[in-house]
User: Fold this.
Amino acid sequence: MRTISIIGAGRVGCTLGKRLRELGWRIVAVTTRSKATSLRAARTIGGGSAHAKITPDLFAADIVLLATPDDAMADVAQELAKVGGKACRGEIILHTSGALDRSVLAPLARLGAHTGSLHPMQTFSGRRLPKLAGVTFAVEGDPVARRTAQGIARALGGVPVAIDGRDKPEYHATALLVAGSGFALIESAVQMLMRIGFKRRRAMQTLLPLIRQMLDNVERIGPRAAWTGPVARGDYAIVAKHAKALRRYPRELQQSYAALALLAGRVLSKHPAAAIKSLKRSLKNSRGGAS
Assistant:
């Protein structure tokens, strides 16, 4: 039976811990910032002794998983090294950050731990445990840590992909472009519909089928073939009309519309230079010729 301790059992830590426990893993310890949250996390996961601070008990597991926020990772690694000392030698220690690589665990590696990272490319809302089957897990680290991370990903039904640690910020930025920014785009569109008289529920019911069909088209035939709309058609007069109408909205929304139109022209158009030139002209015309 494999064993694991979890530090920072928030959305990601609780999900991975619960899924592993369901697969027969034993949860040794669950550590968060307070006794109350650690008890709650242990209940959610279904096992593990609850701790409000890092203790030597963590090292009784085969693997220690750090699922803390990125800005706390370095401090936690330092504290873990201080508490663990010689117990770190041979221990497998992984973290779940999408943007950070194993170098943040350097204090532990210097003590002889095998270090690396395991990041599922998935959203974690906290409302329900997401499905991990088929999800890509970016893994990196020293050979032992990387093999362990790959094994965990496969056990969870995911697809491990080994990447260079130096590429993790770029890798993680793709998630923000697609998912993180996607939330803001959807909410902006909902608020625009509400401004012209839609109820929030109807606005969501209007947009969600559009989003689902777009994703289905991308999956079936790819982004370029699925691309529709005025920029795809070269109907730049409509782009100018949109941009003019958006002058009633916050500057961030206006700038986002323009930036996304230009980005689409850059990455999807068969003739990017011409598309961008025409888009810039249309966007300028929407401002009445102002520079």
Q: What stands out?
A: Residues 3 and 26 are 5 Å apart (CA to CA).
